[in-house]
UniProtKB/TrEMBL annotation:
The chain crosses the membrane at residues 20-38. This is Flp pilus assembly protein, pilin Flp. Keywords: Membrane, Transmembrane, Transmembrane helix. It comes from Thalassovita litoralis.
């Protein structure tokens, strides 16, 4: 029994998995925290691009 217990405590396979879970959770947390900071500027650029494309489409005549 003692031999099996020592073998169990020396086995580090699960520790690597826990490390990756913690790292992944940290990255996901950072992404969730950054989204509100990036959302408005991206929306502004997207809106300006759409307005420019709409204006270019309105001034261009096709086949005429």
């Amino acid at each position: 029994m003692a031999k099996e217990t020592r073998k169990f405590w020396k086995n580090e396979d699960g520790a690597v998995t826990i490390d990756w879970v913690v790292i992944t959770a940290g990255i996901v947390g950072l992404v969730i925290a950054i989204i509100p900071l990036v959302e408005e500027p991206v929306g502004t650029v997207s809106g300006r691009t759409q307005a420019t494309l709409d204006a270019a489409d309105a001034t261009t005549t096709f086949g005429g």
